[in-house]
Design goal:
This protein is an alpha/beta fold. Helix content is about 45%, strand content about 15%. The chain has one domain: Alpha-Beta Barrel (TIM Barrel). It contains 19 helices and 13 strands. The strands form three sheets. The chain has an eight-stranded parallel barrel, surrounded by six helices. It has a two-stranded antiparallel ribbon with strand order 9-11. Strands 12-13 form a two-stranded antiparallel ribbon. Helix 10 runs antiparallel to helix 11. The relative contact order is 0.15. The structure holds 2-acetamido-2-deoxy-beta-D-glucopyranose (NAG) (6 copies). One 2-acetamido-2-deoxy-beta-D-glucopyranose binds next to loops. The site of one 2-acetamido-2-deoxy-beta-D-glucopyranose has 3 residues, from loops.
């Protein structure tokens, strides 16, 4: 997924000229751009050839470069070979909360085209492929019977990758909970999920663990909870308030009309159970499999660069609060065994607590951290409404306004990496997703994506030099796929797929060629080099 909140916000803001926020956004973006353009001119004059020098040799020899996808977004074959629906199928067929059209019934049809896709990866020289398993393809009811066809598909995919020398990095849960478990006990808000998730993980470790060494239990737990249970804009589309989305400057038409949910309690319950499910699966792996399989367990979250809108102490404190509510929510339990104090203070009795045993389990539950990073947001203090503490929802507890920050030379990933290094125990890090959005049918010459990847890969090299423990980098996404917050309208792929082509032929974009050249340590095409050095600002698309 990508933080398309920003996209939603921007697109809708632009379409509504009467929206004051749109003006604020534009003014900020413009001012930043002018300043940065000036700085860039100076830098380019002083340091000709900086862009050109980016080389794979700057990375440790065991560093892995890859690309990412997730099951529902690429596989298709939604009703084939015994797969049953996930909550994402239900959401898509129910209209995607009116945000966009489309579903993952066919998507990229990777279920049938996995050999071709592995060939693409091999052709561009990827070291690794990050994908997820569709729980309801492997275990259609979420628990109980294994689907032999599902098992066979993942074995085939894994074997195909290995035979091409590509490491499989698997995410067990990428937002597509089996609908059966949602129906039975409301999925992640019930503690029953811990047992079923652990049993599912057990099947995966047992069946695939001889060949798979990198396991991520959950993808973007923080966003799954915020979007799915506070705002109701992704499955399972649960929420109880729509007013609080005003603090995100979201267009009102993006606010899901949830038929059930409780934005005051459920986001916290969902994350709590995600963390417990993860810790339980990790304990199982460490006890039963690690000695034999020598693999590693991680957890994934979305990281965002938060920047105070002004230098007033209110906004600076609000920025720390946003960091705690969105990232500390996950990072503090994994590092210190408990939620951040800010959250305890603002959420009170609605925030679940860990027993001492759970807390200890949590602290020893990860070998690596998977982070996704796309961009940054300004934070403005949003004074709590005069509401009883019991009635506030997640956004009101956080008490901030998050404002799109579109700047050409965003360096806020440095601060995120520094805080992971200095504030959270310097875990080994895999950057599981990073990428740039364009309109799906725009040119195969995707210069903005090339520049974005060039910039971020360069930033990662610098961060490693200054002591960040980063082990791998994955571009989101390998293919133009079914995007969680924009369907088939936006795309992040290295490969374009024309949806009107019955064969869904994959066509390499310039970014695929650029990435391949970089990975093969080939000299950059002169035209590409000149274009990168001619550091014109990125279009404000992302
Ligand atoms: C992989 O590269 C070979 C050689 O350049 C080419 O013939 C083939 O079509 C490529 N395969 C895919 C799936 O792009
Ligand atoms: C939500 O419900 C209200 C009232 O029924 C309706 O006016 C509005 O159009 C709905 N919004 C969406 C996004 O469905
Ligand atoms: C949410 O749950 C809490 C605790 O059970 C309850 O007090 C509150 O009324 C619920 N809110 C809504 C909107 O249902
Ligand atoms: C806040 O202060 C920092 C450091 O002094 C400065 O770089 C930044 O531009 C200031 N931001 C604003 C919005 O004034
Ligand atoms: C912009 O990015 C370049 C690398 O592409 C970096 O050297 C430079 O410091 C950045 N400028 C600012 C103002 O952050
Ligand atoms: C992309 O272009 C095709 C063919 O022109 C068109 O049918 C399709 O609707 C377009 N898709 C999007 C998402 O714009």
């Amino acid at each position: 997924m990508h933080i398309s909140l920003i996209n939603c916000q921007k697109n809708t803001a632009e379409s509504r000229s009467k929206n004051n926020m749109a003006l604020i956004l534009k003014i900020f973006a413009l001012t930043e751009l002018l300043t940065i353009a000036t700085v860039l001119v100076v830098i380019i004059l002083l340091l000709p050839g900086t862009a050109y020098s980016l080389s794979r040799d700057e990375f440790p020899s065991d560093f892995v470069f890859g690309a990412s996808t997730s099951a529902y977004q690429v596989e298709g074959a939604a009703n084939e070979d015994g797969r049953k629906p996930s909550i994402w199928d239900t959401f898509a067929h129910g209209g995607n909360a009116n945000m966009y059209k489309g579903d993952g019934d066919v998507a990229c049809d990777e279920y049938h085209k996995y050999k071709e896709d592995v060939q693409l990866m091999a052709n561009i020289s990827l070291d690794a492929y990050r994908f997820s398993i569709s729980w309801s393809r492997l275990i259609p009811d979420g628990k109980g019977q294994i689907n032999p066809k599902g098992l066979q598909y993942y074995n085939n995919l894994i074997n195909e990758l290995i035979s091409h020398g590509i490491q499989p990095h698997i995410t067990l849960h990428h937002w597509d909970l089996p609908q059966a478990l949602e129906d039975e006990y409301e999925g992640w808000i019930s503690k029953k999920i811990v047992k079923d998730f652990t049993a599912y993980a057990d099947v995966c470790f047992r069946e695939f663990g001889d060949r798979v060494k990198y396991w991520t239990t959950l993808n973007e737990a923080n966003m799954q909870a915020m979007f799915g249970y506070a705002l109701g804009i992704i499955p399972p589309q649960r929420c109880s308030t729509s007013t609080s989305t005003s603090t995100l400057s979201l267009d009102p038409s993006f606010v899901a009309n949830c038929s059930k949910g409780n934005s005051s309690t459920e986001p916290y319950l969902a994350v709590h159970h995600m963390l417990l499910a993860h810790a339980s699966a990790a304990r199982l792996y460490n006890k039963k499999y690690k000695g034999l399989q020598n693999g590693f367990i991680g957890f994934n979250l979305l990281t965002i660069g938060f920047v105070p809108l002004t230098n007033t102490s209110d906004d600076i404190i609000a920025t720390r609060r946003a960091q705690d509510f969105i990232m500390g929510w996950i990072l503090n339990p994994l590092t210190f065994g408990d939620y951040p104090d800010t959250m305890k203070r603002n959420v009170g009795s609605r925030l679940p607590s860990f027993t001492e045993k759970e807390s200890n389990l949590m602290k020893s539950s990860i070998d690596f951290l998977g982070i996704n990073f796309y961009n940054s947001l300004y934070v403005k203090n949003y004074p709590p409404e005069s509401k009883n503490m019991e009635d506030r929802d997640y956004m009101q507890d956080m008490a901030v306004e998050l404002i799109t920050r579109l700047i050409e030379n965003d360096t806020s990933i440095d601060e995120v990496l520094d805080s992971l290094k200095n504030g959270y125990g310097n875990f080994p890090i895999y950057i599981h997703e990073n990428g740039y959005k364009t309109l799906r049918n725009s040119s195969l010459n995707d210069w903005p994506r090339v520049k974005y990847l060039h910039k971020y890969i360069g930033t990662i090299a610098n961060a490693i030099r200054s002591g960040s423990n980063i082990k791998g980098y994955f571009v989101w996404s390998l293919l133009d796929l079914f995007e969680i917050l924009s369907g088939y309208e936006g795309s992040f792929g290295l490969y374009y797929i024309d949806l009107n082509d019955p064969n869904l032929k994959r066509q390499p974009k310039l970014s695929a060629k650029w990435y391949s050249n970089f990975l093969k340590n080939k000299p950059m095409d002169l035209k590409i080099t000149m274009e990168i050095e001619n550091d014109t600002p990125l279009p404000l698309e992302n």
